[in-house]
Amino acid sequence: MRPGxxxxxxxxxxxxxxxxxxxxxxxxxxxxxxxxxxGYCLWTxxxxxxxxxxxxxxxxxxxxxxxxxxxDITDTFNRQRRRHRRAQDKxxxxxxxxxxxxxVLDEGLLILTNDRNLxxxxxxxxxxxxxxxxxxxxxxxxxxxxxxxxxxINQGDFSxxxxxxxxVQDTVVLELTASYFGQQGEIVLLVSDTSRINHLxxxxxxxxxxxxxxxxxxxxxxxxxxxxxxxxxxxxxxxxKAYDQMSEQVTRMQALADDLxxxxxxxxxxxxxxxxxxxxxxxxxxxxxxAEALSEGQHIISFDAMSTPLRANQKDIxxxxxxxxxxxxxxxxxGANIEIxxxxxxxxxxVTIADDGIGIDPLEIPxxxxxxxxxxxxxxxxxxxxxxxxxxxxxxLTQAGGSLTITSRLGKGSKFECWLxxxxx
Length: 425
Description:
Elements (H helix, E strand, L loop, with lengths): L2 H24 L2 H28 L11 H36 L4 E5 L5 E4 L1 H7 L10 H4 L3 H8 L7 E4 L7 E9 L4 E8 L1 H36 L6 H32 L7 E4 H16 L4 E5 L4 E4 L1 H17 L6 E9 L2 E8 L33 H11 L3 E7 L3 E9 L4
Parallel strand pairs: 7-9
Antiparallel strand pairs: 1-2, 1-5, 3-4, 4-5, 6-8, 9-10, 10-12, 11-12
């Protein structure tokens, strides 16, 4: 029990005993006890008034000098006030620090309410989006009117980001990423200026494309002279072997240059691909014939599909599926089964290329579509490619609105699932 409570109890007991003894001696026992209780109540109301007056003033200054239970109450309030003030000071320091951190960020940071109204933003967001102080409380869709952004911010899934042109500077490209936070459905929106990265990627693509084009001429000249030298009847066996090996390397370099040119073209045509109507089954039949010629009867290739009309860029789809099927022939041992099939869905087609060959280490699968990445079983001079085939395939399928899924286990074969959506006018 608190000391103040004990003191208050003894005070009440003292008042009651004193009034009882005094009243008994005078013959007014009940009356004096009643007066004692009434006096104690009046005194309590007076003390309570002083305490509430101090509370109403925000508990500023020194609390009233009281004892008993009221002294304990004012001391408790005073301690709580000091703790609250220290917590406020810490919170203020933390808020100031976070504010300084967000102000030095190059990325724009915005806080939106659950109804997509602007609540807070940093200086980078103000610069990138052209915000003003009077925009607080305004719907973000009134400030960024791009239809893609309106659809993005109204969706419930923010797992992907959105890229769009700035409405402030024509040369600026912005990447926006949103996510929910808090319990009120608030949204934090991160805005990044990707103009420099996009410019560097464009320069890289142009450089690779130009270099690849420039390689074609000297490689063609070298191939021509090698063919001439190979036709000389007096060549020795050593010379013919050297010419054959040089021709083989020139062929690989030409294939690498062609792959680089194709990949650069795909990157340049993002969003501008020319769509055409063609039969996917007929296209695959042509690729299968070429794969059988490449296999020279060493693999069992099966293909079964009915007519499947598709609207896409035929050249890109041919390159994507051809790379996957030719890889299945090149990198699997003699006698391997390669099965190709088309499965029609309501919104597109699944093209599956499955084999029962050597398989791929699951740890390598995430890197298979990286440029120039080749697994250990693809690095020899006979079967090793440029490392661009699957990168081209994934890029072409992505540009067509599709996807590439790879599943495999060592010694259990591999399966490549290509999703191709149908496009309608």
